[in-house]
Amino acid sequence: MTAFINILLSFALVFGGIVSQTDFLLHPEKYNAKTLEVSELPEAVTEPVTDGFVQLSEVNMHYLVYRNAGPALILVHGNGGSANSLREAAQYLANDYTVYLPESRCHGDSSDPGEISYSLMAKDLYEFIHALGLEKPVVMGHSDGAIDAICLAAEYPDAPGAIIACGANSHPKTFKPYFPVGVAVRNIFENDKLNELMLTLPDFTPEYLAGIVCPAYIVSGQFDIMWVSDTLYIAQNIPGSDMAVLRGEDHSSYMSQNGKKAYTLATEWLNEKIGEA
What we know:
The protein is an alpha/beta fold.
C-alpha cells in the first residue's frame, strides 16, 4: 500500500511539474522570466592572485582568489566540480568583486573527511568565511553549490551578506524524472557518496527556508533539471527573496558554461539590491 501511494505521489509531482512548465510559457511574469544580455562586458581577469589552502575543523580546503580589492564574493561549484568549474565566472566578476573559489570537501584538491552533506558543506563555508576574515560576503552557488548557499544562509544567518542560488532543488523528488534515474543508474556501476547526496538530499521545508534573513536571489533555467515550480517554491518561502527563470537556459549554460552570463546575472541583481560594488 505504501509503495502504491509513493507511486501516486510521484506521478502527481511529475504532472504538477509539467503543468508548471506550461504555466511558465503562459504566465512568464509569475516566474520573473528574463533573458541574459552579455554585451559591453569588461575584460576578464585572467590569473588568480592566490592559489592556496586553509585548514578548517574537518577539511583542508583548497581555494583560489581573483583580484584582491572590492567586496568579497564566494563562488561555490556544483556536485563533482572544482574551482575550475566557475573559473570563467570568477574572471569576469573580479572586475567588481574580490572573488573566492573554494573547493568543497571531497572535491578538487580539498581533503575528503569521509562524510558529506549540504549542512556539512555549509559549515565548511561558514568556517572558510571566518578563517579568511570575510565580512558579509555574497555567496553565489551553482547546483549543489546553490544548495550549500541556501543552507549557509538558513543555518548561519549572520554569515552571508546575500546569496544567489542558481539551479537549487528543494528535494530530490522535484527533479525532472530523467535526472535522478540517470544518477541512480550511474551509481549502480560506480557507487559514490556524491551520487547518494543528490539522490537523498536536500529537504527544504517552508520553516527551514523562512530562517533566511539576508537578500536572496533564487534562479533557474527554463530547461533546468528541476521543475520551475520548485524554484518558485524556494523563492516564495524565503522572506523578501527575488527569483528569476532564465529563458532558453538549462542547468549549466549560464553558470559553468558561460562566465559572461554569470557576471551579468550577478551584477544586475547585486547593483540593484545592495548598491554598486
